[in-house]
Amino acid sequence: MILTVTPNPSLDRTYEIPALERGAVLRATADRVDPGGKGVNVSRAVAAAGHRTVAVLPLGGPEGALLARLLEDLGIEAAGVPVAGSTRVNISVAEPDGTLTKLNASGPELSDAEAEAVLEAVRTRVESADWIACCGSLPRGLAPEWYAELVARAHRAGARIALDTSGPSLTAALRERPDVVKPNAEELAQAVGRPLATVGEAVKAAEELRGLGARAVLASLGADGQLLVDETGAYFATARVSAVRSNVGAGDASLAGFLTAGGAGPAALASAVAHGAAAVQLPGSAMPTPADLDPSAVITTADIPLDRVLKEPA
After folding, report:
1. Which among 172, 178, 236, 263 is least surrounded, fewest beta carbons within 10 Å?
2. Span of the secretion signal (predicted)?
3. Of 152, 176, 200, which residue is a domain's last?
4. Is 252 labeled as catalytic in the residue annotation?
């Protein structure tokens, strides 16, 4: 079972339009609403793959009630923590060429009691979890050290932690030695305080994060592929993608693929890449099922292309 923790979940509404024209009245050709937030997306991908998952998250207002119902419809147990503020609603506008415009709300401010209640909800379920995936930005009211406290408590209970966050929250948590951290290229560059121009520079940056406490680093390099650096070495894989429809949640699908494949080594990396490649070819923040995966599209290399120049994020 994979337990996910999403401190700032959302309802994600996606509208597909022919072209985005500022100031115009536009009619969507398709629209959908999905339960959102990085940890929620991981749970959705885990459930789509046929594994059990429990989503711990603060829920408030009618938006929170709808989010819980959508999760239950997907077969995901929602361990909701009631909060006074309303769960946020995010808007995505998708164009046919793959361009995505996002409007993310800030979400409710959590009180100290509500923040502690989320940690307590994790504690009561930690013994049944193979992995705990802690994902996303922190809502207002939570200090950057909140994830560090969660990692410390989970490790004391014997759990393995995968952490997908950035900025001060990531930096603060590294001292508690999370088992896996999952930055994208931009977040990895931010963590080491310099731009990363090549895959080789990304490898060095990942090694620096390991030196600061991360036991393994799973780095998403966008269209260039993904990188895994752990105590056994560095590994690289990419995948052929025919067309990008939406990249919302692709990184979360990758993390789910990594964890459901064991959370370590080249085989788990290949699973992560396959899940991410499948996700970008689906609408909105839809998560891939086993039928969507194409393991034959994954390309692993014996030698990491250290001199490959990283593309700009799509």
Report:
1. 172
2. none
3. 176
4. yes
